[in-house]
Design a protein that fits this description.
heterodimer; A: 313 residues; alpha+beta; Ribosomal Protein L22, Chain A; four-stranded antiparallel beta sheet; 26% helix; 26% strand; B: 153 residues; mainly alpha; Non-ribosomal Peptide Synthetase Peptidyl Carrier Protein, Chain A; two-stranded antiparallel ribbon; 7% strand; globular; ACP_chloroplastic (chain B); acyl carrier activity (chain B); Acyl carrier protein (chain B)
Chain lengths: 313, 153
């Protein structure tokens, strides 16, 4: 069991409450992230732990080692505090939220239904690495996100791994990259995009095995990896002419240290109007302590997808 | 259902209340287990006839008290080794059949790598659907043995 020591410095929840936010409009994504290294206070971590359900707490204590326990607490605290910010109704607080999994295991909010009240069509998805935990939120659109450390290496040979799991086109792309470092970076980017897509679909890995779809993006098509961000598309391997056009992607470089991929459903109402760039707002947060809107700063660099960074002051 | 070995031979079965996780307190589980085990002792007439009182000693899970499930210990051991290597776990960290990948810090990329390493080690091919259902080392070992058997058939 992790021993949580309380230091003298106490954070009072009442004086440092969550800054409320309006729900993102359709065609906008809110992206919140926390850096575990910035949470140093054990009493703050205890406050986060206190927000969790008994089941979530049990899962935390099953994690092996203090670092993994901390990560698990922060992930659940991030989801709960993020959703609670949107002030869905007066009953919703970080602690009161209930979650369940859909039949494929994708987490979703279990709203406490009332006669007079219909829950908002809020969607969320989380992802974590040891050094960054993120939560994406949309309204009326499925969302999947994935974050990976830019420096991440894999134990297997990249091309062997790609041959096992990726589509033929993706393997060809990776094989064509002569520089091993660039190849590794492109691999990580592809991985995050593929993972974000599968998570957005919400049907589990068997619902969309990695080999059965190809992610293409501008750099990949032109072969110039320094080119500006351009559209990212997914196509089904079974039918390459059929661009799975319901989905749009954003690829970011986050905090200088991570790649983040966001996959969301396109708004059907916008079909035929050309590609309307999706708006994205990114916050770095330490719930109850501080929120910082980092869109438009160096902390958020859009490297793929037609997305506009929305700065909210 | 779990089995119990007595002096190296199958002694009987007892129903575990729930799967024993990494940090679960042992005492309630061993209390219930000890009742069942006592029943097994009495049914099997293990040589305690000269003793007036029965004292039961349960060894820690990793040594004498072995709960056998479907896969051979050898397979479980190999899986543990691969998992340790993939996750770069410190020498003293505990990895057993009951270990959940997620609890050891594996994310989906790690899991894909582990599956690939297992495929290479055992000469099998794991479908996405099966890979998805693997949550513990034991699950992986059981699946491996199933696939190896199928290959051999």
């Amino acid at each position: 069991m992790m021993k949580i020591h309380c230091y003298e410095r106490n954070f009072c929840v009442s004086s440092c409450s969550l800054v409320p936010k309006p729900l993102p409009p359709r065609m906008e994504t809110h992206f919140w992230y926390i850096l575990p290294d910035e949470v140093k206070s054990s009493s703050l971590l205890n406050q986060y732990l206190d927000l969790l359900s008994p089941c979530e707490k049990e899962n935390v204590f099953r994690m092996q080692g203090d670092q993994l326990k901390k990560r698990a607490i922060l992930a659940r605290a991030l989801v709960r505090t993020t959703i609670a910010r949107y002030q869905i109704n007066s009953q919703v607080s970080p602690r009161s939220l209930k979650f369940r999994k859909n039949i494929h295991g994708k987490p979703e909010v279990e709203w406490q239904l009332d006669e007079d009240w219909r829950p908002p069509p809020l969607h969320f998805n989380i992802s974590h690495t040891s050094s960054l935990i993120a939560c994406g939120v949309t309204v009326d659109s499925l969302i999947g996100i994935d974050v990976e450390e830019k420096q991440r290496t894999i134990k297997n040979n990249i091309l062997s791994f790609a041959q096992r799991y990726f589509s033929r086109h993706e393997v060809e792309l990776l094989t064509s990259i002569p520089d091993t470092e660039v190849q590794r970076q492109e691999f990580i980017k592809l991985w995050t995009l593929k993972e974000a897509y599968v998570k957005a679909l919400g049907r589990g890995f068997s619902g969309a095995p990695f080999k059965t779809f190809t992610i293409r993006y501008g750099a990949a098509i032109s072969g110039n990896f320094n080119s500006e961000a351009s559209e990212i598309v997914v196509e089904s391997s079974d039918d390459p002419t059929n661009l799975t056009s319901n989905w749009e992607f954003t690829l970011l470089e986050l905090a200088g240290s991570h790649y983040a991929a966001i996959c969301t459903e396109k708004d059907n109402a916008c079909e035929g109007k050309g590609n309307v760039p999706r708006k994205l707002t990114v916050w770095k947060t330490i719930p109850f302590v501080e929120d910082e809107c980092v869109s438009g700063t160096g902390a958020v660099v859009i490297i793929g997808g037609l997305t506009e960074s929305e700065v909210i002051t | 259902m779990s089995s119990i070995m007595l002096n190296g031979k199958l002694g009987g079965f007892f129903k575990g209340g729930r799967r024993l996780g990494q940090s679960d307190p042992m005492s309630p589980y061993t209390f219930i287990s000890s009742l069942d085990i006592t029943r097994i002792f009495s049914l099997k007439s293990v040589s305690i006839s000269n003793k007036k009182s029965l004292s039961l000693r349960l060894w820690p899970l990793q040594s004498r008290f072995r709960v056998h499930c479907a896969a051979k210990p050898d397979t479980v051991e190999k899986v543990c080794k691969i998992v340790r290597k993939q996750l770069a776990l410190p020498e003293d960290s505990s990895v057993t059949g009951e270990s959940k990948f997620v609890a050891l810090g594996a994310d989906s990329l790690d899991t894909f790598e582990i599956v690939m390493a297992l495929e290479e080690e055992f000469g099998i091919s794991v479908e996405e659907e099966s890979a998805q259902s693997i949550t513990t080392v034991q699950d992986a070992a059981d699946l491996i043995e199933k696939l190896v058997e199928k290959n051999g058939a």
